[in-house]
Amino acid sequence: MATPIKKQEFTAEELLQAQAQVFHHVYAQIGAMSLNCAIELDIPGIISKHGGEPMPLSNLISSLPISAKKAAFLPRLMRILTHMGYFVQETASDKKEVAYTITPLSKVLLKDSPTSLSSWVMGMLHPYSRVSWHRLSDWFLEERYETPCELEHGKSLWDLASEIPYYNHRFNETMAGDSRLLMKAVVTKCEEVFHGMRTLVDVGGGTGTSARTIAEAFPHIKCTVFDLPHVIADMPESPLVDAVAGNMFEYVPKADAIFMKLILHDWTDEDCVKILKKCKEAVSEREGKVIIVDIVLDSNKEDPKMTETQLFWDMVMMAFTGGLERNEDEWKHIFNEVGFSSYKITPLGVRSLIEVFPSIIHNYGASSSMYVMNNLLKKASSYM
């Protein structure tokens, strides 16, 4: 007979701590919406243009297009944003009032910055996006719908983008906002990835932000953006990149390298295999490669916040695309199914850059780790 499990008792202090943690998780959305408010009012931009000096509260109030009746509430908005790390509160030079300066967190929100995340923040927090989260529990109870987004709107994210010009433009701006910052890191930290390359096709390249960054950094590479017709139609003209409309499930234009940023996490394993097979057909067996920028779960185990952010991304995929974020073993399985021979992972904050090779005959560099796949097994090999 099984021994009964003793009922676990918790102290009052433990329960109060638990209550505070639940409060924090629920109220975290208030921090996000406060940040969205600051961006819409352009508070980071206004403070950054104050000649490099701390901006007194009175000056900030007079510079904002807010109602005079609401001026008394601004210090409370600034207080939470300061606590979150977006601003530093100091004493003004006359020592009569508080003043504010920007931080690295608010620096990446400046609307006129080429690496601004402001459009990404506003896109992720737009009501059209947020409403799908209210259908999460309904979705678990349903069998018909692929995602909570589809349950709420009656169609997939991709159909929404193709049928509603405003949503398509907002979605493309959201993705471009992320690309502007991430791609600056890619072309500087991963410069050797692009050595010896003459042509590159950015599959699912949106409005061309990533491809333009690559073309600007490496003028010898001819870059082409390959995406669906309604996406290409929203792409600004650029002498740096070409644009080709098409479907990656049907074919991929040939190039020395295929580039995909935040594409495969939108799809199931089966769909990823189909996409990567088309990519493998498009590159040289001996010299070609596929470059994937995506999340590798558990790549930053020593940083709980980084891991939590990666898990949040996985929930976004579940709610909007039906895809998922993957750990290294899950990526390995897909690469093996496609028939790739080897791959290399370079961490990039929350995301990673993964180079995947049809052939193991490559120069991987002096400080890289290359993983060789052999049928159903893979052996790790370090090149020191």
Automatic annotation (TrEMBL):
<keyword id="KW-0489">Methyltransferase</keyword>
<dbReference type="Pfam" id="PF00891">
    <property type="entry name" value="Methyltransf_2"/>
</dbReference>
<keyword id="KW-0808">Transferase</keyword>
<dbReference type="Pfam" id="PF08100">
    <property type="entry name" value="Dimerisation"/>
</dbReference>
<dbReference type="InterPro" id="IPR029063">
    <property type="entry name" value="SAM-dependent_MTases_sf"/>
</dbReference>
<dbReference type="InterPro" id="IPR036388">
    <property type="entry name" value="WH-like_DNA-bd_sf"/>
</dbReference>
<dbReference type="GO" id="GO:0032259">
    <property type="term" value="P:methylation"/>
</dbReference>
<dbReference type="GO" id="GO:0008757">
    <property type="term" value="F:S-adenosylmethionine-dependent methyltransferase activity"/>
</dbReference>
<feature type="active site" description="Proton acceptor">
    <location>
        <position position="265"/>
    </location>
</feature>
<dbReference type="InterPro" id="IPR001077">
    <property type="entry name" value="COMT_C"/>
</dbReference>
<feature type="domain" description="O-methyltransferase C-terminal">
    <location>
        <begin position="133"/>
        <end position="341"/>
    </location>
</feature>
<dbReference type="GO" id="GO:0008171">
    <property type="term" value="F:O-methyltransferase activity"/>
</dbReference>
<keyword id="KW-0949">S-adenosyl-L-methionine</keyword>
<dbReference type="InterPro" id="IPR036390">
    <property type="entry name" value="WH_DNA-bd_sf"/>
</dbReference>
<dbReference type="InterPro" id="IPR016461">
    <property type="entry name" value="COMT-like"/>
</dbReference>
<feature type="domain" description="O-methyltransferase dimerisation">
    <location>
        <begin position="30"/>
        <end position="112"/>
    </location>
</feature>
<dbReference type="GO" id="GO:0046983">
    <property type="term" value="F:protein dimerization activity"/>
</dbReference>
<protein>
    <submittedName>
        <fullName>Trans-resveratrol di-O-methyltransferase-like</fullName>
    </submittedName>
</protein>
<dbReference type="InterPro" id="IPR012967">
    <property type="entry name" value="COMT_dimerisation"/>
</dbReference>
